Amino acid sequence: MASKNMMKNAIALFLTINLVFLVFTKAQAPPPQAPVCPRDSTQFLSCTNVLNLSLILINNQSVLPCCTLVTGLDAATASACICNAVRITIFNFLTINVRVNQVLRLCRIIPPLGFRCP
Questions:
Q1: pLDDT per residue as tens digits for the range 76-102
Q2: Is pTM beyond 0.70 here?
Q3: What CA–CA distance (Å, rounded) separates 102 from 14?
Q4: Is residue 23 within 8 Å of residue 63, measured between CB atoms?
Q5: Which of 58, 59, 80, 56 is nearest to 69 (CA)?
Q6: DSSP, residue by residue, 45-104
Q7: Within 10 A of 97 (CB to CB), how many other CB atoms are there?
């Protein structure tokens, strides 16, 4: 009889300790969602002209139509919009990322650290 009570107490203690440890564990936060462009990608066709590989130099005048489109967007969203616009027209991803960063800097938007076109 005493061994049954002792066994019940041991199980109760074990479950209590497990419950305490489970309460103090921290769940991993879900990864952030990829930014989604709130505007239609056809509006960003002027950005694809700026990002054309035949352009040697991107300057303020050539990027102005694109800058007016990304004004008011945060850096991640602006990058996503430009990447969506050029995804079909250009296939060299390294060049896309470099050019997107150049365009964002000319628009006075600091590109997100480590941003890559999806």
A1: 888 888 887 776 555 555 556 667 777
A2: no
A3: 60
A4: no
A5: 80
A6: HHHHHHT-TT-S---HHHHHHHHHHHTTS-HHHHHHHHHHHHTTT---HHHHHHHHHHHH
A7: 17
